[in-house]
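Let us work through a complete example step by step.
Step 1: write down the sequence.
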Amino acid sequence: MNFAAIDFETATGSRNSACAVAIITVTDGQVSDEFYRLIQPPENYYWGQSIAMHGIRPADTVSAPTFAEIYPEVRERLQGQVVVAHNEQFDRSVLRRTMEHHGLDYRELTLADRWKCTCRLYRAKGFQPASLDACCARLNIPLDHHNALSDAQACAQLFLFYQTGAI
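Step 2: predict the structure and record it as tokens.
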């Protein structure tokens, strides 16, 4: 059971405005790597509602690397992997649009057209609501919601529970 769980936070409503990323690598059913980076979004610009949601501010990312600068680390963790996200459509589009913004070729990652989505999987299991915080509360998984590292850790745990039939 090998996969990478990913979560992004964005600075604005634009999908190319990643301001944080976390990737949890699972190898043989065990967490083998945790990666978290703040990212300087385009022009280091934020919407107030985004700050209110995740707490990341322009002052936190003014000296942070751009996505292009951390891309080699991201590529190392994602290339050819099964990728899991709680809202895969959102996180997949953030990765694609952020890469596009920085002139990077998404195809280089050789990822599936659709990733595994724990929200969709848990909804199919009858979880209502199937939001990340609701799933974590129901299964007693610790969560600091909208912290990319905590969200990715929780997503990895949800996928492990699903894969092993623990739910």
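Step 3: interpret the result. The chain has a mean pLDDT of 98.
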